Fold this protein.
Amino acid sequence: MEKGMATYKKILVAVDLSPEARSVLARACEIRAHYRAVLYLIHVVEPIVLGGDYELVPVMPVEIEETLLQRAKGYLGALAGEMNVADAPQVVEVGSVKHEILRFAEEQGCDLIVIGAHGRHGVATLLGSTANAVLHGTKCDVLCVRLGE
Ligand code: AMP
């Protein structure tokens, strides 16, 4: 490897439940193999938000949360197996997607976040809200995998 080139040791890939998650994970797997890095898979379950007159209240009945967590864990495990990275640590968090991705990356000292980015119209939404928020909220490198329109 050339002197001065980035060497990634801990990569975090953000996986949603869409079919496009495979493309994002596939790219992260390539980078993991290239750098022989540790790859963490994260999926965030967002609480249902009820809007009152004055504030938004996150609510998640325990049974629903448990069902969603189990479903997400099963999905991540199956996806990781399918992509031959079943040994990669899989993390499911509850909260705001961008906040949990940033928090986990910071806590684990990740040096690269791989995330999907939709090509929506207009510069402001070019990256999509999640990718945009992550890109601007971290000091580590971010790879935005371009997804379909
Ligand atoms: P979005 O622009 O919000 O449709 O999502 C863009 C990317 O953000 C996805 O391709 C994922 O990499 C990531 N992402 C979105 N939702 C989640 C989620 N619930 N958990 C983990 N990553 C997510």
In short: Strands lie at 10-14, 38-45, 48-51, 56-59, 90-94, 112-118, 141-147. The chain is about 40% helix and 25% strand. The first strand starts at residue 10 and ends at 14.
